[in-house]
Amino acid sequence: MERFVDLIHKKKRDSELSDDEIKQMVEGYCNGSIPDYQMSAMLMAICFTGLNDRELTTLTLAMRDSGSVSDLSPVKGIKVDKHSTGGVGDKTTLIIGPVAAACGIPVAKMSGRGLGFTGGTIDKLESIPGFRTDLSAAEFFQAVQSVGICVNGQTDDLAPADKRIYALRDVTATVDSIPLIAASIMSKKLAAGSDKILLDVTTGNGAFIKDYGQSLALAEKMVAIGTNAGKQTVAQLTSMDEPLGFAIGNNLEVKEAIDALHGNGPDDLRIVCDTLAAHMISLGKEIPLEQAEAEAKSAIESGRAWEVFLSMVEQQGGDVSYMEHPEKLPAAPVTVDYRAKEDGYITSMDSEGFGVTAGLLGAGRSRKDDAVDFSAGIVLRHKINDFVKRGDVLATLHTSKEELADAAAERLDGCYGFSDTETEPVRLIGDVVR
Ligand code: URA
Considering the entire predicted model, what is its pTM? Predict the structure, then answer.
């Protein structure tokens, strides 16, 4: 093997790395023969000079192959995975998973926990009493086969190279590189073993990538990787310029998802879910998008998606009575109304700030092993372009300690913008990349 320092030089000068060099880099970093300081320099070089599509695909596949790749072939049908690049109030998997399964698409999904300002599907599901997300491979297959859907936690051997590289990126200011993000996400999606992949690429002030053009570039890179790896991949851009729906926080979001599965709930959540579900169904059934959207709506209206959701909860050990009576879910002992300090139209909402504030209230974790308060979070009363008067309740804070609510209310002061006139409506649904 060439000395790794020579490869760092090469990348620094914007020369291409060969497939062998990239594979040796991933292997060498995982087996400890390449130290952190050299890998950090390489990651920084990639941040500045990038990777072409061949290099990017090779890197992603090497990361995928650093652990085990799920074989979902025992599950009949076209398996479609769905992944969101993260957002605030994003409970879409809880809704569109059952919708797609009710339309006959097997959903064998591995999801993650929340970290930082975005929530994670696994935390939301674990806020349902009894719900298990640590099913064995055999239990996972059995669940998908019997109810059509299972949402399980990510196993430790899913793309372990990504775990090591991500931890290094986190402390070397190399997270915000489009090719590194694309390789990180796609290595896990490809290892999860579905036949096709739908990516919900969020964009805006509550997304991982805030700039629309950069989000589009990320979507294009991920679709190129998926396609090069032989998996049909579609990316839908969706806005995170305000939190999705009204609820932010684990069991608060479960309650909102239950409403949505009954055909109720906030319009923005319904529109995003209909769009994403239509893509999943279109990919899985190989039918036009409009027909798929009609099927998604009918799965909700007929109650079939709700039935599938209940079966999923039961199959994964959750207590279904809480889903039938969501008012039974534990409520936060402290609720405090946060009120408008002026009259006017709400013209901006800093979604990331809402995510951080929900975290302050106990809904999130800042370190991997922190405990999460399932009942903590924020329920919004108003969103962009609503007119409010001074003293109107803008949001209700849910927490276990009064003092946390005080700190959170202070943080929210900076999260709203007001004006005498309305602003452009949020463009919820952006471009599609195929
Ligand atoms: N999510 C990931 O899984 N990886 C990244 O690099 C960024 C967001």
Answer: 0.95
